[in-house]
Write a structure and sequence with these properties.
Elements: H1 2-5, E1 8-13, E2 20-24, H2 26-43, E3 49-54, H3 60-75, E4 79-85, H4 94-107, E5 112-121, E6 124-131
Parallel strand pairs: 3-4
Antiparallel strand pairs: 1-2, 4-6, 5-6
Length: 135
């Protein structure tokens, strides 16, 4: 029957008695499988990380301005990486930078949760805040 229709005979379940076979155009079947896999990959959630930079002596207005940006990023589903960059001798104020980042995390509690607590890496202290999943 498959030869008459110029199609392929494909064995679906070889262990069944009798074995289950199907008459299909195998090239078309492979094409459709690739197309489905490509669609699934395109629809996969892509998380983007937005960065916000602070100084250890960041002023209140600048803090609020960056806080509003972070809220918008978290609402859009992006992760936020906030970091304090210490220049020169300002590394002496590392505890001030940590307080700033912890305050930032507390202010954003309703929009996202801290994925990584403040950590000093060289001259940068950073933390990552992930958005809260909507139900």
């Amino acid at each position: 029957m498959a030869q008459d229709l110029e199609l392929d005979l494909v064995e679906i379940v070889p262990n069944a008695t009798p074995p289950v076979c199907k008459i299909v155009d195998y090239q078309k079947y492979l094409y459709q499988q690739k197309k489905k896999a490509k669609e699934m990959k395109a629809n996969a959630a892509k998380t983007e990380i937005k960065e916000l930079r602070f100084g250890p002596q960041t002023d209140e207005h600048d803090f609020q301005f960056k806080l509003n940006h972070a809220k918008n990023f978290l609402k859009d589903g992006c992760k936020v990486k906030a970091f304090v960059f210490f220049k020169g001798r300002s590394i002496l104020f590392s505890e001030q930078g940590e307080k700033l980042l912890l305050r930032f995390a507390v202010e954003l509690e309703e929009f996202g949760k801290a994925e990584k607590m403040p950590l000093l890496e060289g001259k940068r202290m950073s933390m990552i805040i992930a958005p809260i999943k909507k139900k």
